[in-house]
Amino acid sequence: PWLEMYWAAYVELSTCRPPGMSGVPSIPWTAIADYARTWGFDFEQFGDLVYYVRRMDGTMSDWSEKHHG
Q1: Residue 21 has what pLDDT?
Q2: CB crowding 5-27: b at 16 or more within 10 Å, else e
Q3: Residue pair 9/49 in contact by the 8 Å Cβ criterion
Q4: With contact defined as beta carbons under 8 Å apart, do 10 and 56 qualify?
Q5: Are 3 and 52 in contact (CB under 8 A)?
Q6: Are 49 and 35 in contact (CB under 8 A)?
Q7: CA of 6: how far to CAs of 12, 32, 36, 46, in Å?
Q8: Residue 50 phi, psi (nearest 5)
């Protein structure tokens, strides 16, 4: 259950993807930093947020590549 806040952040941050010609563009680091600052994440939570968002983003990119070429 404690990972839910990172999932919620990922869902919100997914709206910050830059437009891309192909594939799924990565969520910008600046968007992650802004989110963490807005919600008052401490240094450790920020590190975790970056880690989890990057992992979920990588999974999304892999899935998109597999299903859409």
Answers
A1: 65
A2: ebeebbeebeeeeeeeeeebebb
A3: yes
A4: yes
A5: yes
A6: yes
A7: 10, 11, 11, 10
A8: -60, -45
Q: Which residues of the chain have pLDDT under 50?
A: none
Q: Environment class of residue 45 by beta-carbon count within 10 Å: exposed (0-12), middle (13-18) or buried (19+)?
A: middle
**pTM of the predicted model as reported, rounded to 2 decimal places:** 0.84
Give the separation between CA 28 and CA 11, rounded to whole angstroms: 14
Burial zone of 32 (CB within 10 Å; 0-12 exposed, 13-18 middle, 19+ buried) = buried
Using DSSP's 3-state secondary structure scheme, residue 68 falls into: helix
